[in-house]
Design a protein that fits this description.
Helix 9 (about 210-220) packs parallel to helix 10. The protein is built from 11 helices and 7 strands. It is an alpha/beta fold and about 280 residues long.
């Protein structure tokens, strides 16, 4: 007969370690990249690393077989989870993944892997140096990108500097950014233009460059330490970027961020955080 002590030991669940890294991949009509094995390559690389991890694919209401294909991949990868969202745009998909991340560090990347997941190894060590946000950067170079795409990037940098005076970071738009989990949630909680709980519905492909700018702008306002790190990036042809439409949307986002800043909304958020930190220190 089994002793009570033995039964108690057998019944005790084995603790599951918290993942060191959560990789968030927003996905809208990504069936071609999935068929090319992009998700499998991410999973294969992470499986070879010494740290625990999870992969969150956030489907942004795709009109093709993206969600179903990603869910089929779950059979081969126990660390993979698929979240189905209504179509609200890339920013909302990224925010959903960051808010549901279990890892100490949450990194978002694109399904096309223009910046390969292996570049995470350039970002992760900086968290041990005390940084709260570490972002991949292409500098001002857009390798293999067409002339119009390079012009669009340069124009966005110039407008951002002129409207926001935000010169601390060269490349705000590289889709390869990592955050301490609680820092990401704090930043998202203080967004004014791209509030993660908005019920706004998107129509068709969306390129929300203002989301990345606002997240980094708020990170600075809240006093978090941000590190920009050079990463490999190669242009991936896509039909989602529309020069006129996305340039106009990006400009409007910058103006909206500036208006929110002039109204003191970001400053009040930073003051509230500073006050909370002081109260915690006084205890």
């Amino acid at each position: 007969m089994e002793s009570n002590a033995a039964a108690e030991i057998r019944a005790t669940p084995i603790p599951v370690p918290r993942p060191r890294l959560t990789v968030v991949i927003p996905a809208y009509n990504e069936e071609p990249n999935l068929r090319r094995g992009a998700l499998g390559k991410v999973a294969e690389y992470l499986a070879q690393q010494p740290y625990a991890h999870e992969i969150l694919v956030v489907d942004d209401g795709s009109e093709d077989d993206t969600a179903a294909q990603a869910e089929r991949a779950m059979r081969q990868c126990s660390q993979l989870r698929v979240i189905r969202n209504p179509h609200r745009g890339k920013a909302y998909a990224v925010a959903t993944g960051l808010l549901q991340a279990a890892g100490d560090i949450a990194l978002f990347t694109d399904m096309d892997q223009a910046t390969p997941i292996s570049e995470a190894e350039r970002l992760l060590p900086w968290f041990d140096q005390g940084y709260d946000v570490v972002i991949g950067s292409r500098g001002t170079v857009r390798r293999h990108a067409p002339l119009w795409r390079r012009f669009m990037s340069r124009a966005q940098i110039a407008l951002r500097n002129a409207i926001l005076g935000f010169r601390e970071i060269t490349d705000t738009q590289c889709g390869f950014k990592a955050f301490r989990r609680e820092v990401a949630k704090d930043i998202l909680d203080h967004l004014q233009v791209y509030r993660p709980h908005s019920d706004h519905r998107a129509h068709g492909p969306t390129v929300t460059s203002g989301f990345d700018v606002e997240m980094l702008f708020v990170a600075k306002k809240l006093g978090y330490r941000v590190k920009e790190v050079a990463v490999e990036w190669d242009y991936q042809r896509t039909r989602r970027v529309n020069l006129l439409r996305d340039s106009a949307r990006g400009l409007l986002d910058l103006v909206r961020i500036r208006i929110a800043d002039l109204r003191g909304l970001y400053a009040s958020a930073g003051q509230a955080r500073a006050g909370a930190s002081e109260r915690a220190s006084a205890r």
